[in-house]
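Show me a record, fold above all:
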Amino acid sequence: MKQELGTTPAPVARRRTVSTWGVPRVWVLAWRKMVTVEATKRVDQPVWTRTLVGWHVVFWVLLATTLAVSFTVDLSPVRRAFFVGAVVVLGAAYQFIGLPAIRSRRRLPSHVYRLIMIACLMVLVGLFPQSVFLMFIVSAQIWLLGDDVREGAAFSVLLVIGVGAAQLWSAGWGWDTFWEVLPWMLVSLVVSLLFGIWIERVITQSEQRAELIEQLESARDELAEAHHSAGVMAERERMAREIHDTLAQGMTSIVMLAQAAAVELQRGGTDGAAARLAAIEDTARENLAEARALVAAFTPVALSEATLTEVLRRLAERFAAETGVDVQVSLDLPDEEVAALPQAQQVVLLRAAQEALANVRKHARATQVLITLGLSDGRVWIEIRDDGSGFAPATVSGGFGLAAMRGRVEESGGSVQVESAPGRGTKVQVLMPVQEDA
């Protein structure tokens, strides 16, 4: 038997039923339906409480019916007293021992109650043979309180032998009566045991399937949670890339422009400082617009107002104004083909150019930068080449910017190639398969 988990004790019904003494199968199936407790943790407590209460009513109705029918036959005062006493004892045992045993699943009370129940039924059948129809509720309760097939079979055998002996005593202990009762007892016992074992196997398979379903549902929930966590992490990473490629680079420009303006003011060059302050204001406004765009969507503000070609040229002009580096933009495809690229690809290409220029600003000490946008062999590509100090790619682990660029490009099915050497500048090339704009 499996006991339901919970903070409040609940009635737990054994999912075993056996048909005895010619009881119609529909009664047995009805009993099983009423007292079966599903072997999962998702049992609806009030429903099972109500069904058990219904079968408590069945028990008391059958017991009261037996007592009432017994008054229709002529019994001696002594026999009637014993009969009524057995009914009272059976009812009291059920109320004060049987019900607590059903709820607690304790072995000792369940054994005691079943022994009392069999003894009382023997008395009732011996005094009033028509009481045998109580076998329906009694045999079902035997399996209800059983822990396994062997225990249920043992009590079923004891019940059949006891009731058979009571019938023999009532009939006068004759051999003729014995041979008349014996086949009926054996057939009833065999059918009851076979039916009970079959039900047990069906229940075992049902429990295994229920456990499998529970495991599958648990795995589905875990998989959904994993997908959710992966989505959250991907969203965080995408936001980090967007912030790095827009706001962080804009803040870097503002810091450098502010430092340059401070130097100009120290030298007394008010015109140069004013130009730097104007550039700071423009950069701050663009950062503010980008921040608002990040809140609303991921499409850069610049691309929502102009083509990729125009945005790259503006980016080059601003970078040249801020750093003094000569930046050129070259197109190996017509403007209309650039404008026809899916916006998602345009965003990736723009972010790659921004990250490459940010690295030029921080590390390259370059004097010239060439940005080339082209289309060949079904792939669109952008190349950023500088004449700076360069580096050895094998000895550099790479910061967040290059890793973010690779992640963004690879999500779109593309690749990033970095070629560099000390003193020979750096070339960053992003290649992406051409996609049709949705």
